[in-house]
Amino acid sequence: MSLENMKAMLNKAAEQKYGVGAFNILDYNSTKAVVLAAEKLKAPVIIQTSAKTVIYWGTKAIINWVKELAEESKVPVALHLDHCKDLALIQDCINAGWTSVMIDASSKPFEENLSLSREVIDMARPEDITVEVELGAIVGVEDDIHVKEQDAHLVNIEQALEMCFTLRPDCFAPAIGTAHGLYKGTPKIAFDLLENISSQIDIPLALHGGTGLSVEVFKKCIALGCAKVNISTQLKYAHIDGFVNYHKAHDTEYNPLKVIDSQYKKLEDAVIENIKIFGSEGKA
Questions:
Q1: Distance (Å, rounded) from C-alpha 261 to C-alpha 242?
Q2: What pairing do the DSSP bridges indicate for beta strands 145-147 and 140-142?
Q3: What are the pLDDT digits (tens) for 61-84?
Q4: Which residue from 35, 71, 248, 257 lies 20 to 30 Å from 228 (Cα-Cα)?
Q5: Half-sphere exposure of residue 120, counting CA atoms within 13 Å on the CB side?
């Protein structure tokens, strides 16, 4: 199949109350693991690239990996730029063939966030590219976005509704108490706030900071409108652990392909685990 944008994928998920996994890839091997895991479970999937990953590999290499895998796949695959503050990089990804982008202006004053988000929507819509916007501060570290816990705040309901009604983004990421990275304690999720927002808009919501949440929290957030579920940190750990664990078990063996295969299996297992939790198995 050719690459798709997220609109139909997420609208269907929101209507049927399941979540589409959005997995942050690191290289060709992790990209392959995500797509083939989704194919095994007949699930739609979103390949996510951080700004750092795009800058490291370049747009040409990444789009070639993803297009090759998507065209050989029988499941819907979207390519999404995650948490980007740089409008020039967003434009580069749009030009290169990304099918979805996220403008993260959540650290800006509300009016500036609106303005920057509107600018990206104006860049993307003519190319039939979906746009995700964010409001509120999410605890933790995502790429170069650092938010101190004491400064983190939940999304303002009035501003959330204004942003959604004014801009009509394709996906909305509200801060509801989740965190990027690994949780140091039990997260306090504002389910009432999530329900309040989702009951008043018809835009699919994105759940950020998915790694480490319980199955019960995932399922409740999805039931309350989170059609897109982000997983990044878990794949980073799978990528490193796949290497480290193999080398510890075979410390005299220096066969790179076996190490790469160990990483692949660890990554694929993580993706399969999450797809099953999110309820998107068989939804392709």
A1: 8
A2: antiparallel
A3: 999 999 999 999 999 999 999 999
A4: 71
A5: 34
Which whole number is the average pLDDT over 127-139?
Answer: 87
Per-residue burial over 79-110, b = 16 or more CB atoms within 10 Å of its CB, e = otherwise: bbbbbbbeeebbebbbebbbbbbbbbbbeeee
Q: Which residues are catalytic?
A: 82
CA distances 254 to 130, 138, 241, 245, 265, Å, are: 44, 41, 17, 13, 18
* pTM of the predicted protein model: 0.92
Pairing of strands 226-231, 205-207: parallel
d(CA 177, CA 175): 6
CB 254 within 8 A of CB 55: no
Which two three-digit tokens encode residue 141? Answer: 């570290």
* CA gyration radius, the chain: 18
CA distance 24 to 220: 23
Query: Which residues does 157 contact at the CB level (< 8 Å), separation at least 6?
Result: 193, 196, 197
Class of domain 7-278: alpha beta
Position 174, amino acid: P
Domain ranges for the chain, please list them.
7-278
